[in-house]
Structures are given as C-alpha cells and as structure tokens.
Amino acid sequence: xxxxxxxxxxxxxxxxxxxxxxxxxxxxxxxxxxxxxxxxxxxxxxxxxxxxxxxxxxxxxxxxxxxxxxxxxxxxxxxxxxxxxxxxxxxxxxxxxxxxxxxxxxxxxxxxxxxxxxxxxxxxxxxxxxxxxxxxxxxxxxxxxxxxxxxxxxxxxxxxxxxxxxxxxxxxxxxxxxxxxxxxxxxxxxxxxxxxxxxxxxxxxxxxxxxxxxxxxxxxxxxxxxxxxxxxxxxxxxxxxxxxxxxxxxxxxxxxxxxxxxxxxxxxxxxxxxxxxxxxxxxxxxxxxxxxxxxxxxxxxxxxxxxxxxxxxxxxxxxxxxxxxxxxxxxxxxxxxxxxxxxxxxxxxxxxxxxxxxxxxxxxxxxxxxxxxxxxxxxxxxxxxxxxxxxxxxxxxxxxxxxxxxxxxxx
Length: 411
What we know:
Layout: H1 10-25, E1 28-29, H2 30-37, H3 41-53, E2 57-59, E3 73-76, E4 82-88, E5 92-99, E6 104-111, H4 119-132, E7 141-148, E8 151-152, E9 159-162, E10 167-171, H5 172-180, E11 184-188, H6 189-200, E12 209-213, E13 219-224, E14 227-229, H7 262-265, H8 267-277, H9 286-294, H10 298-322, E15 326-330, H11 337-351, E16 360-363, H12 369-380, H13 391-410
Parallel strand pairs: 4-7, 7-11, 12-15, 15-16
Antiparallel strand pairs: 1-3, 2-3, 4-5, 5-6, 8-9, 9-10, 12-13, 13-14
Helix pairs in contact: 1-3, 1-13, 2-3, 4-5, 6-12, 9-10, 10-11
C-alpha cells in the first residue's frame, strides 16, 4: 500500500524547480519561468529574488524584443549539479553521469549477474567505484536513479519485482541508499524513459503521450497530464504481458503465462521461431536475425513483418484505451523498425478508431545508454515533482540541488 510521505516546503520546491528549469533549458525570463512551472509571476519574482541574493542565478543580457519591454533573462551561476543513472539488465549494468541539461558527462558498462548470491553487494561496489572516480564532482552529485525491467512499488521505496532478473520483493532502494549514502530513486525502465522524454524530448510539447518499447522485453509508459501514471501498485504499463489470444508451449512467457505479447514479438520469441524454422543455427541470436534481414533474407523479413502485424493490433488497442496525443517507440528492436513497418502500419490502421488514424507514431534514436539516461532523469526531474511521487528521496534531491549549486557557484 502506498505511504504518504512528506515533500519539500513550497519555497524549497520553487527554488529547486527554477534552478532545474534553467539547467534543463538554459536562460529564461521570469514570465516564461512562471508559465513553464505553472505558478504565479509573484511567486517566481520572490523566488528568483532569493536565488539572486544567494548568487545561485544571475541576470543576463535582455532577450531580443519583438515590441514592448525586452525580457530580462536569468541564468545559472555555474552548472555543476548532476546525477547518476543505472540500467540493470540480466547480464550487465549501463551507467551514465548526466548533467542538469541531459548531457552525458561519463558512461560505462559492467558485466553483471543479478542472480548471484551477493548481487546487491556487487552493484554497490561497482557504483562506489564510479562515484570515487568523479573526484571533486562527488560533492555536487544529486543522487542515483535505477531503471529496472520490472515492477517497482514506489520510486522512493524501491522494492523490485522483476522476473527477468530473478528478483522478487527485492529492497533495492533501501540497500542502495545505505550502501551509497545518497538519495536513490528506483523505477520501471520504460517509465524512466518516459520521465526523460517528458524532461528533454517530445514530452516538452505533449502532456499526454505513450512510450512503448520493443526488444528484449515489450513495455509501455503512460504519461497523462504531464505525469507518468504508475497505477495502484506501480505496475501500470506492463504492455508485454497483455494476452494476444495465442497460446501453447511456443508462447510461454517468463511471467508464467502463455500468449503474452512479449512471448510472441519479443527478441527471445523471434529468435525461437527463427531457430525452429532453420533460419538461425543453434548458438545464433537476435543480432544474427537482424543481420539476415539487412541482407534481404525473405524469411527474416517475413518474421519481422508478422511481428509488426501483431504489434500494430496491440498498439491500436492501447491507443483506443488511453487516447494519447502521440506515441514514441524506443528499445533495441527499433534499430530494425523499418522491417516491422510493412506489417505494423496496415495492422494499426485496420484496428484504430477512424478518428485516431492520423496519430503520430515515431521511433526514437536508440542506443543502450538511453535506458541509463532515463534512470538519471528520475533524479533530475524531482524538482518538478509537485505531486510528491518521489517522496522523501525527492525532497533530499531538491535540498542537495540548492546546496550543490551553491557549492558550484561559490566554489
């Protein structure tokens, strides 16, 4: 059951939000800041006055005027605050150090076995090594975000259930807070991608959208009114575990059910079908299947086209239920999205309500660090968390943002 947790005082939240907004978007005028944060000009005037007095922001040259009085731009003094993002997979960790503006300052990958007896101890050691390597930048580290392929009860609590990792009721958040001595936020990996998209991507223009991933897993994140919808238990968006109507041993899913969408069009399912048909040899995997499609192999192209047909029908159902403004596709599978399209587009159109057939569906640019950037965005987005989703950990991040930026500005 969700717990009610305290959030920052309004003044703390306002100061952190202004600093983060300027860090994400660059110099802005007071009127635009008020509009973007959805608060009153009077509140922003007082908040920026406090930040100016503390030398955390500065007045810059006025913006070019199109008539009337030019807006006085405000900018950060220094830009050091940053966050770590960690994506946990069945065989490796992807780690990034990301600035307020989303710039990746450092990245690395480490092999990892989440099923080992001391998996969390190993994870802690790896991250402590990364943090130690930051040198003096450790002082301005806001916190650590974790993206996992499974359900998470609350971002701040961080209890994880992830079949693919072999984790059941694992207290990842608590163990990492103790081990790292920093604020920690944990979220489903697709939800984390949606947070990043809201902060830096298409979500800046849309308040209601879907992020859907295809690849090793199939997932979805629902952004409604600018906020990721998590559901009663943090499990909203388990799109890959919706039934397709197909059943049997061939379609057995890692969750224990049969006929799940992921068990039909996920990477493991596509490889299994390719092995059955002789398209792939034993020991080959999804990269070999993609290579075959690149080389024009008709059987490989047909396999992706059929996956696209199933996917199009499922996405049409989700669009009809959620009614988003737009849909963004991510994940390893989007690297060969062009092979899914011949099946996806007609299937989507055939199953969409006529008035929704003009909806925009875009495949975002993908590489493995996208997952980790989403994890870092969990931390970097906390200054805008007026709903208190990030709880006590979010309040700690906001306090560190103001303090860390003061260190950067005056250090």
